[in-house]
Amino acid sequence: MSKEQPSSIENAVQQLRLGNIIGYPTEAVYGLGCDPFNEQAFEKLLHVKHRPVEKGVILAAASIEQIEDLVCICGESWEQQVRDSWPGPVTWVLPVRQSMPKWVTGGRETLAVRVSSHPTVKALCEAFNGPIVSTSANPSGKEPARSYAEVKNYFGNRFDCIDAPLGELSEPTQIWDAQTRKRLR
């Protein structure tokens, strides 16, 4: 498939499996994604975005089961609050398990994750059979892309992008720290 044409879910998942970046709509803005466990793909994404690894990223998933082995949820005092907000447009910063690569966490002991109800994000994660990176589609310092055309304007044809509607949020998802219960964004 030509990167000049909008990608399908199937083609986007193929690109993820090949270690490539994809663009896709989320709840409020377009996101850039890759396989979080493929270090070369992750480095490509950071390079394209001009983002330092220390900032970390968000992982989006289709279900809690897709992230249970990555972060600590079960048995925590805040577990029910997190579970009650998902699937939905809330991102939680949660303690990570040993299996999480440092390049994804930015060297922290926590990770931002969201179990999305957005149909495109959910379909991507289900077809990929796991979570994907979800960081806004923009070079660092620029406004996040809110359309397929804006993604193409920022990045040209460097990667496949899905042309589908954004969710209904006017701003990116809220980010909460589960341990402190403080809103970070």
Descriptive report:
This protein has 185 residues and is α/β, with parallel strands linked by helices. The protein has one domain (9-183): Alpha-Beta Complex (DHBP synthase). The protein is 26% helix and 20% strand. It has 6 helices and 9 strands; from the N terminus they run αββαβαβαβαβαβββ. Strands 7-1-2-6-3-5-4-8-9 form a 9-stranded mixed beta sheet, sandwiched between helices. Helix 1 (9-17) packs across helix 5. The radius of gyration is 15 Å and the shape is globular. The N and C termini lie far apart (37 Å). The model has no long low-confidence stretch (mean pLDDT 94).
Arithmetic mean of pLDDT: 94
Extract low-pLDDT stretches. Answer: none
Main sheet makeup: 9 strands, mixed
Whole-number radius of gyration? 15 Å
Note the gap between the termini.
37 Å
Q: What's the overall geometry? A: globular
One letter per element, helices H and strands E, the order comes to HEEHEHEHEHEHEEE
Number of domains: 1
Number of E strands: 9
